[in-house]
Amino acid sequence: MKEGLEFSYDGIKSTDMGLINVKVGGGLFEEPFVAEKEIHEIKIRGNDKPYFQSVERSPLVFSLQFAFEDPYDHEKIRQVARWLDQDYYKPFFTTDNPDRIFYCLLHSSSTLIHNGAKEGYVEIEMRCDSPYSYSPQYTSEWYEIKDNPLIITETTQEDFQTGSLQNMIALPSGDLQLGTKKPTWGDIKQKKWGELKNAEYIAD
């Protein structure tokens, strides 16, 4: 995530704001691998082994360092601050990995480090709305159906009467009532197990 030079937040690219993603200092990149989680367990006196209850995952938190490509002024600082200081989670991704989207907002402290000549970089911490990242929305191709559509007609009482009733009685009012015959093991013991799937007996 941090190896990309550009990033996008709330639909605006960092390069449009005159910023690039950087890493100040030597060493390798560090970023969260998975979200932190808390294990909930119950301990009983006399038993050294706790009983597992559940796992509670925390939202992802990651830090960013980005530098101004050109010397900044007061207006540029305020513009960047308004862009990043949102009151709700906004989509964030790096151009190096656009298929991994985080919904996050500015969290905790933010620091401007500069040399006094209006050149420097900013360190911020972002907090996500969940322990997970998301993929972009994909839309499939448009398929045009040229064949005649399937027409399903309404089932009539005559169509219903052509069927068969298994252990049910059709009353003159049109209602159905369960029959008085209860299936027994003797009714089906002569059948093979493979035939029971389509057996005509109804269990009570």
TrEMBL record:
The name on file for this protein is: Phage tail protein
